[in-house]
Amino acid sequence: MGKTLGVGVIGTGWVAGAHIENFKQIQDCEVRAVLSRSKERARAKIQEHGLKEAKAFQNQEAFLAQSELDIVVICTPHPMHPQETIAAAKAGKHIVIEKPVALDRESLEEMCKAVEEAGVQTSVCFELRWIGLFKNIKALLAQGLIGEVFYGETSYFHGIGPWYPQYPWNRTKEMGGDAFLTAGCHALDGLLWFMDQKVVRVMAMSNTSPNNPLDYEYDPNIAALLEFESGAIGKVSTSIECRQPYTFPVLLQGERGSILGDKVSSLDWPGLEPGEWATIPTAMPDSGDVSDHPYLGQLQYFVDCIHSGERPHNDLKACAHVHEVMFAIQESLTQQKSISLKS
Prior knowledge:
Strand order of the largest sheet: 14-13-12-11-7-10-9-8-15
Structural class: alpha/beta
């Protein structure tokens, strides 16, 4: 156990509450400040979560000037993430950044430069890397159980509307970006995490259903084909208007077998009959509710990396490629052609 790390949270919404509650469970961390555009909202968040010693702030400069803050957690609407990340990096704070980290390539590059120059640690909230399903799949792949993967597929289907109304600001292109940036990025990150290689080319299509119950400024349904460095191919899709419960299907096909969610088929398991699946019980991504997401694993890992000096596998530099692929998908939709990514 290292020294107690002071945590400051920017934002007072749903996600901010999840971060506060999870940091409260980490032994060598203490939430010491909350920043909001409204000091009253910051005070209310502090009271809601029983943070007796925490201070409320409305001014970002004063918030970042606190020497007792070691980690800043950014839980604000998407367009604010770049400026807040850059300011926190310049203040010498380690940073947890909610997804998406940026809505455009230029902002992403500025963030990466600021973090690199400051030498601080970062953690991007692709927290599903810590759910049981993802951890099992990574372990099975590391064992070579299905051999070299030649095809991968993931999807993020979240039935938003009419029973889950979506935030009005998130339906706008200026604030939400698009269906991948605001939601489907979890599926894209999962696929890239499993394939463990970069994407070199993408081709995408999108649409909106004729009777969409919500007024999106962008198409809420996107499907993209991906080509990886090795020649493997993949498909990633998202829908944030589907009339169904939340689902997160995963399919990986390799030379020795396949993984389908919590099911495995492998030529190297002789007890399996041809055409049979073995089911491995595990925690599944079955809800879009932030209280159901495995933030604790992500945040504990981040704290451990700060103490050890190890670079997190989900830091800003590593996760920049996920965003670069999303920007290439946007270009493919706009230009209606395949887009090659820079090496």
